[in-house]
Amino acid sequence: MIINESLNKYNKIAVVGLGLSGLSALRLLTFLGKDIYLVNQGAVETWPAIEDSSCIKAKVAQDEACDILGEMDLIILTPGMSKELPLFSKATCPIWCEIELAYKFADAPILGVTGTNGKTTVVSFLEECGKQDPTGDYFVGGNIGTPFCDYIYERMSGEREPAQGIILELSSFQLNLIDEFQCDVAGLLNLTFSHGERYDDLKTYGQDKFEIFKNMANEG
Fold first, then answer.
1. Taking each helix axis from N to C terminus, what angle separates 20-31 and 148-156, rounded to the nearest 10 degrees?
2. Domain ranges across the chain
3. Which end of the chain is more exposed for a tag (fewer CB within 10 A), N or C?
């Protein structure tokens, strides 16, 4: 089993946003036995069904969650939301996306790809290349297809063997929410202004894209 004790100090964890990445993080955190607080838009009865609610301590509508988020040890945030929203004004804990959470338990080299255009095409090409490698399979996911936390859950629960490598498509929204996450190989394909609903200019957008190189050692 993969073991990482760095998550031991985080006991009260909020999962904000119950999309694909949020549900993936929730499943992993439930497996780890954490106290989980769910925050999502809309009335609770309209939320997605939860397979295992044994670790859920509370379900809080997003417009009522500001105070409880201030009590958390860790927040796992959907990349579709900005951590700069007033909702998080009382939060003093780290705010991660599920990519950072999964990284704490990564057991294979990580190849990350980002860029304004073409990243899905490149990652899909790399996936096809990986299928030709007789030495083992590759996990492919992130912003495309399967959340990274799904791989970690399957590894920890014994459902799959270690991957030969981990290939991730990474968006600027995800990269804005990393801390210690580190690629072994990273590529920024291109950069033109996008996501005007979130960014005011190319500089701020580019800064998030360049986070893909965060924590990488320059050994050249």
1. 20
2. 5-100, 102-213
3. C
Instruction: Give, as one character, the DSSP assignment of residue 160.
Output: S
The answer for residues whose C-beta is within 8 angstroms of residue 115's C-beta and 6 or more apart is 122, 187, 188, 189, 190, 191, 209
* pLDDT, tens digit (0-9, with 9 covering 90-100), for 26-46: 999 999 999 999 999 999 999
Question: Given the structure tokens 């609770």, which residue do they identify?
Answer: 44
Place of tokens 């007789």: 134
Query: pLDDT digits over 15-24, tens only?
Result: 999 999 999 9
The whole-angstrom separation of Cα 194 and Cα 58 is 36
What is the fold, at CATH topology level, of the domain defined by 5-100?
Rossmann fold (3.40.50)
Which CATH code for domain 102-213? Answer: 3.40.1190.10
| DSSP secondary structure code for residue 83 in this structure | T
